[in-house]
Backbone:
């Protein structure tokens, strides 16, 4: 049958074919939600999408295959019962009821799955889903024509096979839209640059590193707000489009300072952000193996963080984390005259003295030259004290006095999911679930140790996105857990063996290691452990990103 002849078929059959194609396209877009989510959280990079397919051992592909198999089997049985092969086309639609039912069940199960970073229907995602809908519609209509021409027994039931095309259709749609997205992105960037050009007196501060960026950004914002009108990039807006949105939406004409968090997953990312923002000052937080998987080597990570240093003018104030080996290396290589290395363990221009850590916060004296001021904060842990020191060093160089900085330190509150203490009945929860790295995990366990009068429990999937270093680092993490915790609940299988190996080598009782499939199951196991007459402290260390589930 020629395709043109398909349009001249019985009008009702053709209209039904159109309707079925529309309904199927809607179902396919909804079924594709997980694939679209992974594409989005991978920064619209196909490499990240492909890594997810490989790391999850294509379990979503197998689920879709099962959906197709059950639906196709139902259609074939229904078509056989109603003798569709002998031109009883009016009965060929009944089998599709099963396909729609199975698809809806699949979609509902996807929606119910817990998500750390849900799909956000941005304008870009709307363009992707619109084009995906059109491709799915045309494909459905074409396959119905093909079946009518060559497989009449299957007829409209052929659309039950279309879900298996989604893992290919999603990246295909992305590639088709790449030129358009580039033009749109350039338009936003040009508008952002024009807006910045109209604010020549705006002081712009870039913050980068493997960890601690968001915490330092929030602390510095509170400090500088004692004297200046500050615009801070909210949440974790640290990508080109994220910072462009900050400039166009959040930056006001009367702002005096812009604090920009700068994230990266590959060489060149920070350099690109610096061309957009053109920062005048910078802070380099700790540099570790975060995102080792996408960078490929520690050398590439260090090189990328140094892109901020190289982009700054010669008179820029640059503050380096002296307690980070790699950040200290960049300090030594930096040729700027206004560079500063701050450390908790060694003398530096801005120092902390008389430090007292407790489960309620930190007390210390902040010293600069011959001046000193007493400070107190609700923030927990040595790493937060270092974040305060980094921020205070920049604030001092921007003409804040110690009294203003001390007042700001009193105002500091824990950031959500970053070692945030939460009281719940006879249990204190230390929510450090946003993300994790080797240094941050050690710091979190140091805080956990301060609760020496309570039963200590850690719930963790380990540390991820470390490439070939992941096994070694998680085994070491397991050894630290063994020295600190009374119980350890391991979430997911991704690092289970490495964590267990470290725990066992640390003489931890195997009976106190609990394995769970997901965070919800881990919470159930936690509730079973809790006894009303005991006091507990529970550390949630890391939560797996959605591309690991």
Residues:
């Amino acid at each position: 049958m020629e395709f043109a002849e398909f349009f001249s078929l019985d009008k009702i059959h053709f209209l039904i074919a159109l309707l079925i194609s529309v309904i199927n396209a809607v179902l396919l877009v909804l079924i594709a939600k997980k694939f679209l989510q992974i594409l989005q959280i991978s920064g619209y990079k196909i490499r990240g999408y492909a890594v997810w397919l490989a790391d999850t051992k294509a379990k979503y592909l197998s689920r879709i295959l099962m959906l197709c198999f059950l639906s196709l089997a139902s259609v074939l049985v229904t078509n056989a019962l109603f003798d569709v092969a002998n031109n009883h086309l009016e009965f060929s639609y009944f089998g599709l009821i099963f396909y729609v039912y199975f698809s809806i069940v699949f979609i509902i199960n996807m929606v119910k799955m817990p998500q750390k970073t849900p799909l956000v229907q941005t304008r870009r995602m709307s363009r992707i889903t619109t084009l995906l809908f059109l491709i799915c519609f045309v494909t459905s209509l074409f396959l119905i024509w093909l079946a009518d021409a060559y497989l009449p027994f299957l007829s409209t039931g052929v659309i039950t096979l279309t879900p298996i095309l989604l893992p290919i259709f999603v990246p295909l749609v992305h590639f088709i839209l790449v030129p358009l997205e580039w033009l749109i992105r350039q338009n936003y960037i040009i508008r952002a640059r024009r807006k910045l050009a109209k604010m020549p007196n705006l002081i712009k501060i870039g913050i980068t590193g493997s960890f601690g960026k968001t915490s330092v950004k929030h602390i510095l914002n509170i400090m500088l707000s004692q004297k200046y009108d500050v615009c801070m990039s909210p949440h974790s807006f640290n990508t080109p489009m994220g910072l462009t949105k900050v400039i166009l939406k959040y930056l006001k004409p009367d702002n005096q300072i812009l604090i920009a968090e700068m994230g990266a997953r590959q060489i060149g990312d920070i350099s690109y952000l610096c061309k957009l923002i053109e920062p005048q000052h910078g802070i380099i937080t700790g540099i570790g193996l975060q995102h080792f998987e996408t960078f490929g080597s520690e050398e590439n990570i260090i090189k990328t963080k140094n892109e901020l240093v190289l982009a700054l003018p010669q008179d820029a104030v640059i503050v380096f984390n002296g307690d980070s080996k790699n950040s200290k290396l960049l300090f030594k290589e930096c040729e700027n005259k206004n560079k500063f290395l701050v450390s908790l363990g060694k003398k530096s221009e801005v120092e902390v003295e008389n430090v007292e850590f407790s489960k309620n916060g930190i007390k210390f004296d902040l010293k600069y030259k011959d001046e000193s001021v007493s400070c107190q904060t609700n923030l927990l842990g040595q790493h937060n004290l270092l974040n305060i020191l980094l921020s205070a060093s920049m604030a001092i160089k921007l003409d804040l006095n110690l009294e203003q900085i001390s007042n700001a330190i009193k105002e500091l509150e824990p950031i959500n999911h970053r070692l945030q203490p939460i009281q719940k009945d006879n249990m204190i929860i230390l929510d450090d679930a946003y993300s994790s790295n080797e240094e941050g995990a050690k710091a979190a366990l140091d805080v956990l140790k301060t609760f020496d009068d309570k039963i200590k429990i850690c719930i963790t999937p380990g540390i991820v996105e470390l490439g070939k270093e992941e096994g070694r680092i998680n085994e070491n993490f397991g050894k630290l857990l063994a020295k600190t915790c009374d119980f350890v609940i391991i979430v997911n299988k991704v690092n289970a063996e490495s964590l267990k190996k470290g725990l066992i080598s640390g003489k931890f009782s195997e009976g106190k290691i609990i394995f769970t499939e997901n965070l919800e199951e881990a919470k159930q196991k936690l509730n079973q452990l809790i006894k009303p007459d005991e006091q507990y402290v529970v550390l949630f260390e890391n939560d797996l990103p959605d591309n690991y589930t």
In short: The radius of gyration is 28 Å. The CA atoms of residues 427 and 536 lie 5 Å apart. The chain has 20 helices and 15 strands. Residues 420-548 form a domain with the Protein-Tyrosine Phosphatase; Chain A fold (CATH 3.90.190.20).
